[in-house]
Automatic annotation (TrEMBL):
Pfam families: GcpE, GcpE_C. The gene is ispG. InterPro entries: Dihydropteroate_synth-like_sf (IPR011005), IspG_bac (IPR016425), IspG_bac-typ (IPR004588), IspG_C (IPR058579), IspG_TIM (IPR058578), NO2/SO3_Rdtase_4Fe4S_sf (IPR045854). One of its GO terms (molecular function) is iron ion binding. Converts 2C-methyl-D-erythritol 2,4-cyclodiphosphate (ME-2,4cPP) into 1-hydroxy-2-methyl-2-(E)-butenyl 4-diphosphate. This is 4-hydroxy-3-methylbut-2-en-1-yl diphosphate synthase (flavodoxin).
Length: 349
């Protein structure tokens, strides 16, 4: 797939847009000023592979907490501000690497200018974002309700404010909970601007439904070369968002890190508890950073052949199983040792 070339911006030391790798973001759900809880959660998210974190800044104590939080984390921090320009400035002064704020919501030009000049000093980008639920009435009237046109026009209004004030360090999101509308809106804006796009299907729902909606929405856009950074929004623990986000990228060949598990759906030939084996493998593979395709197959008859694109794999049998590499049987192992031996082989790789 050919990726649309967008402007490259820097969020802390992480590049977004241009030819930089597509990043996975998440948002903490702790009270930001509860510094210990927020740091703990961000560390967990880092461990899961989160590239950039965002937290809600609701008052001055949240903004002040950024300084301490930043000392303990290794990924860039985005301050999510709703309307209050003073909080935006305070967040920047306390070390935020990016702001999530809509200039059109800040108020007078003087207030917007103050925010921009704080950002300019440290070249801190701003994420502009429109959700299908927050489109300005003017555009709802003009375009007959919520649709890609009203979403795009609403976002462009914020873009123009920043451009008029001479600031172009920005990225844009256009999220809807409706998957097709999300796709249409991003496709449309992608033809109109070169700023990097932050993809997301908003309020996607609980983990299971939300994963499917996000994979379809963001996966479709990414497969068209649209999108520079992604956030999966799930009603669940944020680590799940990162896991799903990374898997979406991995499925499209956009993330070359960690284990891609290939496993069969099981059938009447399966003689081992493959479902449990795969669950355990998922847990134990989490810490492997090397990009590998690992197969876990239910039977020795079809397993090695069906999974020959895997770097290494195991196939279950009766009381014992096979370890195979690139489809060729390598050795036999007792069933209870299959996973341990597979991990040893992976370490050797
Ligand atoms: Fe069935 Fe073997 Fe294929 Fe798994 S690999 S689905 S057990 S035939």
């Amino acid at each position: 797939m050919e990726r649309k070339k967008t402007k490259k911006i820097m969020v802390g030391d992480v590049a977004i847009g241009g030819d930089s790798p597509i990043t996975v973001q998440s948002m903490t759900n702790t009270i930001t000023k509860d510094i210990n809880a927020t740091i703990k959660q961000i560390k967990e998210l880092e461990e899961a592979g989160c590239n950039i974190i965002r937290s809600a800044i609701t008052d001055s104590d949240d903004a002040k907490a950024i300084r301490e939080i930043k000392k303990h984390i290794n990924i860039p921090f985005i301050a999510d501000i709703q309307y209050d320009y003073r909080l935006a400035i305070e967040a920047v002064k306390n070390g935020a690497d990016c702001l999530r704020i809509n200039p059109g919501n800040i108020g007078s030009d003087i207030k917007v200018k103050e925010v921009i000049s704080a950002c300019k000093e440290r070249k801190i980008p701003i994420r502009i974002g429109v959700n299908s639920g927050s489109i300005k009435q003017e555009y709802l009237n003009k375009y007959n309700g919520v649709n890609a046109n009203s979403m795009v026009e609403s976002a462009l209004e914020h873009v123009r404010i920043l451009e008029r004030m001479g600031y172009d360090e920005m990225k844009i999101s256009l999220k809807a909970s409706n998957v097709l509308l999300t796709i249409e809106a991003y496709k449309k804006i992608s033809k109109m601007v070169d700023y990097p796009l932050h993809l997301g299907v908003t309020e996607a729902g609980p983990v299971w439904n939300g994963t499917i909606k996000s994979a379809i929405g963001m996966g479709s856009l990414l497969s068209m070369g649209i999108g520079d950074t992604i956030r999966v929004s799930l009603t669940g623990y944020p680590v799940e968002e990162v896991r799903v986000g990374r898997e979406i990228l991995r499925s499209l060949g956009l993330l070359q890190e960690g284990v891609d598990i290939i496993s069969c759906p099981t059938c009447g030939r399966t003689r081992i508890d493959l479902i449990e084996l795969v669950k355990e493998a998922e847990e134990r593979f989490k810490f492997i950073k090397k990009p590998l395709k690992v197969a876990i197959m239910g039977c020795a008859v079809n397993g090695p052949g069906e999974a020959k694109e895997a770097d290494i794999g195991i196939a279950g049998g009766k009381g014992e199983g096979l370890i195979f590499k690139k489809g060729k049987v390598y050795r036999k192992v007792k069933e209870e040792l299959l996973l341990d031996e597979l991990l040893k082989e992976i370490e050797d790789l």
